[in-house]
Design brief:
Two copies of one chain form a homodimer.
Chain A (H helix, E strand, L loop, with lengths): L4 H14 L7 H15 L4 E2 L9 E9 L1 H4 L7 H14 L5 E4 L5 H13 L3 E2 L1 E2 L12 H4 L7 E4 L5 E5 L3 H14 L3 E10 H7 L1 E2 L1 H18 L2 H9 L8 E17 L2 E10 L6 E7 L1 E7 L2 E5 L3 E6 L16 E7 L8 H7 L19
Parallel strand pairs in A: 1-4, 2-3
Antiparallel strand pairs in A: 2-8, 5-9, 6-7, 6-8, 10-11, 10-16, 11-12, 12-13, 13-14, 15-16
Helix pairs in contact in A: 1-2, 1-5, 1-9, 2-5, 9-10
């Protein structure tokens, strides 16, 4: 399979949706990917199931505060260096690259990396959405080690970490990322083809593209949000899909804390100003409450889109007065197991509410 | 040259003196070294000037908060791993090891490391004393890069850093060390024999031993502090030597801040309770003021010793009521150049007072 240049725009839009508010600005990711593709050519994209068991795959991603990622994006040499340092540590070159998440900038950074390094890109990731922390992957749930990993910055500082577990690696990397300016490139979770096929959320690059295409098609047809919802209901993972709210932003609180963008957004309904939707986030949206009642919970996806254009709005793009629709969809089944919920369910984010699948919550 | 088992005790005492209050408890260093020497044999010690120009030398040290270093010392595997990770990064094994400083635990940790790894130990270091930060070495003053470096902890976490300069490496390593429990093993400043001969403070392991021997000899002769002072006056670096004060501790304030032990100690004179000596420290003693007048300044050495036994007292061993003598000695000439003072003179520690050599201060 090959992706086309036009696909990059659709992937960016789809990944902004799947980023559920986080993952960094996909517009930046698209520019990075476009630039690399023009210079180095489009990388080939391969299905996860086509990988030999003994293939070596590295993930590649940016990590940091979303607001900063958009202002201080990867320069290219930092991407090459992260892969090179991990190669050096392992004594083995990767046969392919893969995204760690399919949200925001990290959907397209792997396209940039694969183009630069002449490597194929695997159509899969470790979240099927975006999450704020490094241990929150299906790879980790499946016992794949997060380390060795290599992180780099635009001054070509590099830090190679071996840690006992992914949470410990996350803590170290987060600390270092703040010191390095809240925006770093990370090559982590080196794994075999066998482990990838066992643990990854598959086909998500294609899904991101198709979500972006659905929104574009909807714009031509006049109701992008409805066309998007109709498309999502045909997908393997995001098929439980609801429009939770139609309203405008009346309050938005964000702070950069411990290297994250943490806060919440309040909206009032357009047709009933007394009805209030509150959404809390840590880089990504975690929980949506309508008049105090929980309507959707992480790891299910909570996505804010412009009510007219269907354009996904990231956390750092939220503004007072914006008119948005709040969508929620189911997460991939592999992300709703007990083990997965322990890693990135509501309690992993300090929430008290137990996870209830979207389809089991009263509409 | 070979050091003997008895020498380890003398080196520990001498290094506690040269540690000027910091560098971690040399008693722990002695136990670590003794243990390794019993198991692996005594390493050979070589003169810096005997090294071939193209030899590869790594430094080895512990880094962290002195109080913690004494409670959570290197386990051995962490030492081996730090050297191994640096080897891997460079693609070259070291021909010899060297201490980064000759203060406290870091005088004898290299003996442990050299014994374990079957490598010779160079009779030299990068400070001729102890300093709290990684960039504060004569290696760095001489343009030797601090990185690549490898740090490890007792859980065998490893972090390999390449940074643009030693201060940036220090900041990263310090952050990570706090996360890893304020006690890590560090192999850094990989350098050639040529660079070592050009930049190191030479002969300091032997000097530490001889200082320890002088104190021991003084105890037999009845006046260890005087015998120590007499010996120091014969050394190449520490020959300007004064007893600044003879008193007892009346106040001691210490806090752990940013991974350092920071504070000050006040003493009153035994023969004149109105006369007050105040010493400020950041792991190591930085400045000694007698009734408000500066009597000695970093990088010259300020050392507190028991007034009866001559035993050096580290910062974390200071207690109310202790009767101590305060000694000051000159630092090695290589440490008093303008470039060196910029790196570890008073201003590098936030002090306002300009450096004045001990011998130029009114007695």
């Amino acid at each position: 399979m090959r992706i086309q240049k036009d696909d990059l725009t659709h992937i960016a839009t789809g990944a902004a949706f799947l980023g559920t508010g986080g993952g960094g600005d996909p517009y930046i990711g698209r520019l990075l990917a476009m630039n690399a593709v023009e210079q180095f050519g489009m990388p080939s994209v391969i299905d996860a199931d086509a990988l030999p068991d003994n293939a070596q795959i590295f993930t590649i991603a940016m990590l940091g505060v979303p607001t900063v990622l958009g202002e201080k994006a990867a320069c290219g040499d930092d991407v090459d260096l992260a892969v090179k340092r991990l190669e050096q540590r392992l004594g083995r070159k990767p046969d392919a690259l893969m995204g760690i998440e399919i949200g925001g900038i990290n959907s397209l950074l792997p396209v940039m990396a694969a183009a630069r390094l002449g490597l194929p890109l695997v159509d899969a990731d470790g979240m099927g959405r975006a999450f704020p922390e490094l241990q929150m992957t299906t790879f980790n749930v499946g016992g794949v080690s997060c380390t060795p990993l290599a992180m780099t910055d635009d001054h070509l500082t590099s830090v190679v970490v071996d840690a006992g577990n992914a949470k410990s690696a996350e803590d170290l990397v987060r600390l270092a990322s703040v010191h390095l300016g809240c925006s770093v490139v990370l090559s982590s979770y080196p794994m075999s083809g066998r482990d990838l096929k066992r643990t990854a959320v598959k086909g998500t690059l294609t899904l991101a593209r198709d979500i972006g295409q659905a929104i574009a098609r909807g714009r031509q047809q006049g109701d992008p949000v409805q066309v998007l919802v109709d498309y999502l209901r045909t997908t393997p993972y995001y098929n439980q899909c609801r429009i939770l709210f139609d309203g405008k932003v009346r309050d938005i609180r964000r702070e950069m804390k411990l290297g994250f963008s943490i806060g919440h957004c309040e909206m009032t309904a357009l047709d009933n100003p007394g009805s209030v939707m509150e959404i809390s986030f840590q880089n990504e949206h975690l929980i949506a409450r309508l008049d105090g009642r929980v309507k959707a919970l992480v790891p299910d996806l909570i996505c804010l889109v412009d009510r007219e254009t269907g354009e996904p709005v990231p956390v750092d793009g939220l503004k007072y007065g914006q008119r948005l629709k709040v969508l929620a969809t189911s997460a991939a089944p592999i992300m709703r197991t007990r083990e997965a919920l322990a890693m990135f369910g509501p309690q992993a984010f300090g929430l008290e509410e137990p996870f209830v699948p979207l389809e089991d919550i009263e509409d």
